[in-house]
Design goal:
This protein has 389 residues and is of the alpha/beta class. The chain contains 12 helices and 23 strands.
Length: 389
């Protein structure tokens, strides 16, 4: 796919609809886009390559965009293979090309490719510039967004921010879908742990006059940039995006599921407008992680298992911990037949997280929900509904 981003900047990325799991873990029903760009000026610069999976298509797009010219530079913003997987293909086709990256870029490039040294290279640091003609790129280091070597660049001529993984989303570019949903799932599951690093980058970007954002996944953004930047500020500061309750349950034989769904009904009856119920055994884990960050409250309902908690709940909590889950309010419902212990196991994880408020009472069910549990169910529901009202 070749199209113009501006008069002299072309998009040469590729859609991948053959992939089943992005990073071998995230379901991508609408595929993924690997984005790459070419800046045509007195000097020609390629901005990032793409995943090896689509390198042949990318080389065709590149050749078409160049219209017979030879590229002078290949700028490598991020060394992850879905972005830098075709660097060697590019070098093989254009052996005189100069690679542009920071010191860590070339360390990782050697690790991935086995090539000990690169004769034609420019090592850049914070604030360094590369003049192509009318276009001048300023390099901005963005370590841990979400790898140590990540950098972005700003083209002062077209006022473009080449943002690496920032502002990316799942989904190929020929799919018409709302941006925020898959961008949110992408952000929290891939970049989410590194909110402080994203905040640092946003502060640097605030000093720039940006008209276009060119990420390495997802669409080029050129309208209403304040909306996208605002969401990134919300997400990276771990601020809940919306008032609502996620009820996430882990059930073996269905009794805990009954309790979780009943609790959701009680919340709705008490006036809670947004209640989302997810089955951790069956619903996509990355989507539930997204929901946990999206809303300000979560209720965890889980059955006891082998002296702890049912594995899918344990896995969910592990995902939240690894993505620095914080600033949320949590209610707990546990189930157990002879020695309920799920609540203890869940609390042990939650109490290690930052700014997590665990509500009382904790509801304990013995085997199946009964009338005797309804008083505590209602008390917990009141606590959830009325918290921060």
């Amino acid at each position: 796919m070749t199209q113009f981003v501006s008069e002299s900047v072309k998009y040469i990325g590729c859609n991948d609809k053959d992939i089943d799991l992005f990073e071998s873990q995230y379901v991508v029903p609408n595929g993924i886009a690997y984005n790459s760009y070419v800046i045509l000026d007195d000097k020609v610069a390629i901005v990032d390559t793409i995943d090896k999976r689509k390198h042949e298509e990318w080389l065709v797009n590149l050749d078409k965009a160049l219209e017979g010219r030879k590229p002078d530079y290949l700028i490598i913003h991020h060394m992850e293979p879905d972005h830098a997987g075709s660097v060697v293909d590019c070098i093989n086709k254009y052996p005189d090309i100069t690679l542009v990256g920071n010191a860590k870029t070339f360390v990782y490039l050697t690790q991935f490719t086995g090539i000990d040294s690169f004769t034609n290279k420019v090592v850049v640091k914070e604030g360094n510039k590369l003049k192509l003609g009318k276009h001048e790129l300023t390099f901005i280091m963005a370590p841990m967004v979400h790898w140590p070597e990540v950098m972005v660049s700003y083209d002062s001529y077209d006022k473009i921010l080449f943002s690496a993984d920032g502002f990316g989303k799942f989904g190929s570019l020929d799919i018409n879908e709302e941006w925020a949903g898959e961008a949110r799932r992408y952000y929290f599951n891939i970049v989410g742990k590194y909110g402080a690093s994203v905040q640092t980058l946003l502060k640097k970007a605030a000093a720039l006059d940006i008209n276009i954002i060119c990420p390495t996944h997802g669409p080029v953004l050129s309208d209403n940039l304040a909306y996208y930047i605002g969401l990134y500020n919300t997400w990276s500061s771990y601020t809940p995006e919306e008032k609502g309750v996620l009820v996430a349950y882990a059930s073996i034989h269905g009794n805990t599921a009954v309790a979780a769904k009943k609790f959701a009904e009680i919340l709705a009856q008490k006036g809670e407008k947004t209640v989302v119920v997810k089955d951790l055994s069956r619903d996509d884990m990355s989507g539930v992680v997204e929901d946990a960050f999206h809303y300000d409250r979560v209720v965890l309902a889980a059955v006891s298992y082998d002296g702890g908690v049912f594995p899918c709940m344990d896995d969910f909590l592990h995902h939240l911990k690894s993505k620095a889950y914080q600033k949320r309010t949590v209610g707990i419902i546990e189930n157990g037949t002879w020695a309920p212990c799920a609540a203890k196991a869940m609390k042990e994880v939650l109490e290690k997280l930052k700014d997590i408020n665990i509500l009382e009472p904790i509801v304990t069910i013995k085997s199946a929900l009964k009338e005797e549990n309804m008083d505590d169910m209602n008390k917990l529901a009141d606590a959830v509904v009325n918290y921060n009202k």
